[in-house]
Design a protein that fits this description.
The protein has 2 domains: 109 residues, Immunoglobulin-like (Sandwich); 83 residues, Immunoglobulin-like. The strands form 3 sheets. The chain has a 5-stranded mixed sheet, with no helix packed on it. The protein has a 5-stranded mixed sheet with strand order 6-13-12-9-10, with no helix packed on it. The chain is mostly beta strands and 216 residues long. It has 1 helix and 13 strands, in the order H-E-E-E-E-E-E-E-E-E-E-E-E-E.
């Protein structure tokens, strides 16, 4: 009886040691700039193989919310998988918080439990590189109204020789133009979801950005 109890206790300890868990989170580059593509690598361990999963994320201001769902097989074997979160530029300069939630289930239904397997948080800062300005009063153009309900007016005071575009927080371009100025251009953002957008103007070796807030 003592031998059986010892064996059961050892198995319980082993099982607890190999529960589903986040073992590490790293960011690349280590000190990201507003123009960098940011990748966050989340390493997860599971008590059964395989442990393939998919991850999703959303950006809300200076917070990044990510979650992953992994589907495990029935074979009892330690399995490690890495979820990669890729956040495209541009980013507003400042301090960010990355929240990650891990869920898993067993094949074939792969239904997650009521409570998440594990959660973790990563903090990082985004800086402005040399030669990049986020000054909204850059004297070549102005955007108004800002915040806007959908229509923004871009006015330029002198000729623009570079590329101009507007992107959302995950780097998707919603407007692009190579204007010859001075010009006054009406840009309609009413078909897009409310949130933060970035006007980006590139000329020679400099990039200028301005945040645009789209309201309901």
């Amino acid at each position: 009886m003592k031998t059986l109890f010892t064996l059961f206790f050892a198995c319980a300890i082993t099982s607890a040691s190999y529960s589903q868990q986040i073992t590490s989170m790293t960011i690349s580059p280590a000190n990201p700039l507003t123009t960098d593509t940011i990748k966050i690598y989340v390493t997860n361990d599971f008590p059964s193989s395989s442990c393939f999963g998919t991850a999703n994320f959303m950006v809300s201001g200076n917070s990044v919310y990510a979650n992953a769902m992994h589907c495990m097989g029935m074979l009892s074997a330690l399995c490690t998988d890495v979820d990669t979160i890729k956040i495209n530029p541009p980013h507003a300069a400042g301090s960010y918080t990355f929240y990650f939630t891990l869920d898993s289930g067993y094949e074939p239904s792969c239904t997650p439990g009521i409570v998440s397997d594990d959660t973790d948080t990563l903090f990082y800062n985004v800086s402005v590189p040399t030669g990049l300005s986020q000054n909204s009063k850059y004297n070549k153009f102005s955007v108004s109204p800002n915040p806007t309900k959908g229509i923004v007016i871009l006015n330029t005071r002198e000729e623009l020789r570079g590329q101009l575009k507007i992107t959302n927080l995950i780097g998707q371009t919603v407007f692009e133009s190579a204007p010859a100025g001075p010009v006054s251009k009406k840009i309609d953002l009413s078909g897009y979801a409310p949130g933060v957008y970035f006007l980006i103007y590139e000329e020679e070796n400099k990039i200028f950005t301005q945040k645009i807030v789209l309201e309901n």
